[in-house]
């Protein structure tokens, strides 16, 4: 909610600045045309106050943008700090989720264990349960080679790189079972790394 409010404020600011930009362009063009007359040339070529306006107006606009960006970043950090944190470690060829003190090992369901209606290579032995009313901060890494944690239905794809932790904020407005897969070729069983997530 804080992030959405920040985005709305940022959009409003950009629209206001665009209108201001157009007004400045029109003003400067008009002033330039007017200054073409000999009688007013001195006003626009050696006017200290006009120079100050031209200097301070862009400075104020850039300052407004910087302030808005800082507010946005602070809002996003606040959103992340209040959400659930999940650590994801990719391995050849399974996922491990660490949620608080619980570890979840996600393997693909073997074909002889599948039930009617199960999606081949998309169903996992376990599913990560997510509350759709909360944001989830994901910290993703890998223990061996590069993998990619991809959930197309939420438009998410994050690389899992050994020795590096990439972060992403997951906000799901839909409920149900979401499926994804590893999206970086990581070895012989790359196709056997499904992501199965249940949002309630
Ligand atoms: Cu893979």
From TrEMBL:
SUPFAM superfamilies attached to this UniProt entry: Cupredoxins (SSF49503)
Superkingdom assignment: Eukaryota
MF terms in GO: copper ion binding; cytochrome-c oxidase activity; oxidoreductase activity
E.C. number: 7.1.1.9
Compartments, as annotated in UniProt: Membrane
GO cellular component: membrane
Name of the protein described by the UniProt record: cytochrome-c oxidase
Species annotation: Diplonema papillatum
Lineage, broadest ranks: Eukaryota, Discoba, Euglenozoa, Diplonemea, Diplonemidae
């Amino acid at each position: 909610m804080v992030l959405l409010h920040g985005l709305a404020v940022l959009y409003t600011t950009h629209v206001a600045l665009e209108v201001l930009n157009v007004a400045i362009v029109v003003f400067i063009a008009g002033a330039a045309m007017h200054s073409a007359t000999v009688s007013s040339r001195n006003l626009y070529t050696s006017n200290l106050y006009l120079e100050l306006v031209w200097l301070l107006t862009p400075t104020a606009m850039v300052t407004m943008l910087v302030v808005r960006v800082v507010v946005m970043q602070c809002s996003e950090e606040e959103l992340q700090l209040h959400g659930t944190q999940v650590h994801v470690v990719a391995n050849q060829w399974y996922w491990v989720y660490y949620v608080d003190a619980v570890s979840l090992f996600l393997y693909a369901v073997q074909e002889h264990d599948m039930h009617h209606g199960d999606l081949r290579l998309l169903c996992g032995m376990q599913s990560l349960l997510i509350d759709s009313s909360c944001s989830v901060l994901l910290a993703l890494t890998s223990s061996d080679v590069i993998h990619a944690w991809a959930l197309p239905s939420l438009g998410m794809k994050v690389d899992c790189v050994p020795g590096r932790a990439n972060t992403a904020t997951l906000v799901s407005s839909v409920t149900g079972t979401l499926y994804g897969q590893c999206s970086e070729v990581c070895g012989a069983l790359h196709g056997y790394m499904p992501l199965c997530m249940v949002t309630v």
